[in-house]
Amino acid sequence: MISLEQAQERIKKEIDNIRLPSEPGGLYDPVKYTLGLGGKRIRPALVLLSANLFSENIDDAIGPAIGIEIFHNFTLLHDDLMDNSEIRRGQKTVHLKWNPNTAILSGDVMSILANEFICKTASSNLKEILQAFNRTAIEVCEGQMYDMDFESRTDVTISEYLEMIRLKTSVLIAASLEIGALSANATKNQGKDLYEYGLNLGMAFQLQDDLLDSYGDTKSFGKKVGNDILTNKKTYLMISALNESSPADKKRLIEILEEKNFIPEKKIKDVKLIFDKYSVKELIQNKIDAYFQIALKKLNSISIEENRKSTLQNFSQQLMDRNF
User: How many CB atoms are closer than 10 A to CB 58?
Assistant: First the structure.
């Protein structure tokens, strides 16, 4: 069995060996730049780990794993453009380093390349792999649209938010595991069980990300704490606070969100005071724990030797043990 680190290293090596056309440079240079920025390569690593559950030979999962990673980076490239983000993994975003039109077109070619790599498998489940990938690609776009729609709303419900993060984040993690299993010729039921494991783990992961954004330690979390508050993101914490607070506190919270000129540190402090007053930290933690337990139950129910599940079990725990 390979480890997570070994899977990540294999993905890095394979990406480094991709040879894209040199011309037109304006199209392919941003693609090379984007793929060269690195990252944790978690999703493609999950493809390999899932395949390894059913076979010692993971070669038929390499192409789909690379396809998943290219697709993920394509979504980040377009997300950065839509959000007007300036930095990605410590470097300038493509739309700033080049221009918005280049970001659109290079992103488009990445989405096509992703499909090309998804097809690079000798698995007898190629049809099912393509169906899973295409379904997921559509869902990720749906999730991004919902996320953008929520920016101008103060009436987003918990169920709407959970559906948005399911589509935008969780389905790609889930599909990575399903596609890995199918690449190793696992049964469709085994693939679906791994999909459900990944879906629930992805939900727990994104909710924990919300929690860490407001209550995490900057050094451990890896990015500035409080950004969701400063940008008025409709996270589980914010929606819960709006739902649970008294009319007066809700009015105050909306006023804080609508302020145009604010001191960042004060805004974060004022919002978190309302969060703390209504124990929304505990509400989200309970939800995280619920999704995590469902994920583990799904993983444990898969009919393979228990020792073969240990890498994914450890990965799940590490994901949930990120520091505050």
Answer: 21
